[in-house]
User: Fold these one by one.
Assistant:
Number 1:
Amino acid sequence: MANARKIAQNALLRVERDGAYSNLVLDAALTAAGADPRDAALAAALFYGVLERRLTLDHIIAHYVKRPDKIDPSARQALYLGLYQLLYMDRVPPAAAVNESVMLVRRSRAAHCAGLVNGVLRGFLRDDRQIPLPPETAPFERMAVTYSVPAWLAEHFVRHYGEENARALMASFAGRRPLTLRVNTCKTDRDGLAASLAAEGLHPAPCPVDDDLLTLPESGDITQTAAYQQGLFHVQDAASALCCRAVAPQPGERVLDLCAAPGGKSFTMAQLMQNTGLVLACDLYPQKAQLIRAGAQRLGLTAVQTAVNDATQVDPALGMFDAILCDLPCSGLGILGRKPEIRYKTVTLLDKLPDLQYGMLCNSLSYLKPGGRLIFSTCTLNPAENQQNLARLLAQHSQLRPLPVLPHCRRALGEPEHMITLLPHIHGTDGFFIGAVRKDG
């Protein structure tokens, strides 16, 4: 198992050094190491676990080390791995967690830090593995350590969603979420896909959020399955699937997916349209447009076409559309469970996004036919990017009217019928916002 820990250490170092995307880093590390399934599973658990809990782990280290900022990066990652195993992995014997972490340091350029790593881990064990929490007079700092989110983000969630929702929300971001697959209904149905996956040794389960979804608690590399290669499914969270339901694309319509990469919503909308009409999937970068084309080809979705387009500009050549999906770039505060590195961004991440998004929304109206519908979505939980932008759009464009969206879904925040915030601990999805308007005909 030492190999798994070394893979995790190297991947964590790269994320720290390069700011690279966690999923891409780990996939590359596992491939380069040629890890067997057992080592790959442990490496992934350690890697994502440390990324999710790093603020808590930093707080513990600071309790035992006077100058934690001076610790060599390799030794710091070994400390993270050791503390994470001691706190969150019951099946790892404490002695193994300590010894393997010390060995990681001894085999690195930071061998001189082996004593420090050994001392911190054994000190934490002597203290009965108790996390030293900030005082109750500092509630957001205390939440930050408990849930491993920045204090500013804990305060943000409490301010906008209330303390009970905020605590449940932050707790929901811990641990790996099951993989969700959207059935390609142009080729099979849910039972048919489930049978195909079961024949390959996987154990899919129905997703209660949408009848065309399956979940896989443990999947491995699903791109190697025959079902994937035959185009029987694509990966899509339940929130994104609901977003496509909100667009309600009809057979034969022209639908614009303004910021489409990696293409999952375009694929789902084309399937809802029975692969007729047009779904124009746009992205700023040619290589991402090519990935969408490849995905549509694998799925056999001829209704999906692509265009390289800058959503901050208007291009009349795109034409007019019956429905437009604006799934806009955002701060990503709803997907901390999938991309844990987002939690280490600063509060300034939120400053410029609302105006950028609003400009894209206004531009999209140039493509909307009279009587057409515009669905606006993000995977963040920030009213300035969500509800406030939608209210601004309605206030400044007299030809727009609120359009009811997903009436069957619970509105936990008491929102009006033309908008909804999906919360992981309530809806079983990523954190997500969907709003809808219609243009006067």
Number 2:
Amino acid sequence: MRALIQRVSHASVTSEGEKLGEIGRGYVVLLGVGQRDTAAEADWLAKKTGELRLFADEAGKMNLSLAEIAGQVLVVSQFTLYADTRKGRRPAFTDAAPPAIAIPLYEHYTAALRAAGFTVATGRFGADMQVEIHNDGPVTLWLERNPGDA
């Protein structure tokens, strides 16, 4: 499972003119699910997302977590994080999980964040979406957990 996490001051996601989700200060998580991912990867990633210390404390150091600033999360499905661009000019997405696997794990990840007490907004899985991101910093991190990682 892969997540591209961006610290934001504000973000929203729209599809076909309908605003699906909007947050203030927090994270936008572009979430990709791989063929072999399980709930264990989703749980690990949700815990890591909530515990990362990416917000400045009073001394200006990145020392505060999402919980400590009462931050919010916007999660958007992003199968293109599994693009294979090694050959040719058109990416292959064979490592991305099909919807039957990806949707339940995407929902598991968002449910785990909500269970941890975070306000979570989402896009619409599989939809063509426009994501407005006000990256704060900019701060952008790549998190990945492969099946079987400790």
Number 3:
Amino acid sequence: MKANALVRLRFPSKRHLEIISEALEPEVRKSPTMRSRAILEKENDMLILKIEATDTVALRATANAYLRWISTVYDCLLMLSKE
């Protein structure tokens, strides 16, 4: 792998972190492409997203996809907490 990225995201609670991590688990287990792979780790109240890719185009696409998924799940959690 030639391109790497590391993203650390802090969440307001461990509950949010657990839910988001579980929601993304199927995506992490089976990467949709051979050009990149992602690893999710939890550290206290932070989600650590590690991406390895064969090139910067694949890195960018993978990062965008995971960050969008994380944002979507988090937005849903916020909406549910307001009800």
